[in-house]
Amino acid sequence: MNTFFVPSLLKGYKNVSRWTRHVDIFKEDMILVPVHVDNVHWCMAIIDMSKNMISYYDSFNIPNPTVLNALRNFLIKESHARKLETPLTLKDFQVQHATNVPRQTNTSDCGVFSCMFAEYITRNKSLTFSQKDMPRFRKQMKREITNGRLDQ
């Protein structure tokens, strides 16, 4: 999803109902959802379709039940819109605020933390990085953007 998804979703499903018309999200392994909280702080929500889990990763450890519930409701409404054989219900997807995650100690690295949450989770790696890794991650991200491909 892009950075405009959550603000649009929070205004109602109707605002995002056409966003997935060319892709069946229920065939995806994971859906990454960047969250810009109050236009000042970046977090990452990850919908893991194989585990029926929606997790919210915040480097300041601030829960966001509003976004978690909106994402779960989006999945339910999307399952009805796609006329799945068995549409989802509230009990089908668990939501969690991930608590055992690396924490930032400044006010400028939340975007890098969010990107790294996404990268580590999608690569099935433990979240073993910390604030001290941020300068290296910034250089890595710059290199990947410049080269047009992700490092392995």
Automatic annotation (TrEMBL):
Record InterPro entries: Papain-like_cys_pep_sf, Peptidase_C48_C
Any one cellular-component term (Gene Ontology): nucleus
Annotated keywords: Hydrolase, Protease, Thiol protease
One annotated GO molecular function: deSUMOylase activity
Record's keyword annotation contains Hydrolase: yes
GO biological process: protein desumoylation; proteolysis
Domain (Ubiquitin-like protease family profile): residue spans on this chain: 1-121
Membership in a protein family: Belongs to the peptidase C48 family.
Protein name: GH23535
Upper taxonomic lineage: Eukaryota, Metazoa, Ecdysozoa, Arthropoda, Hexapoda
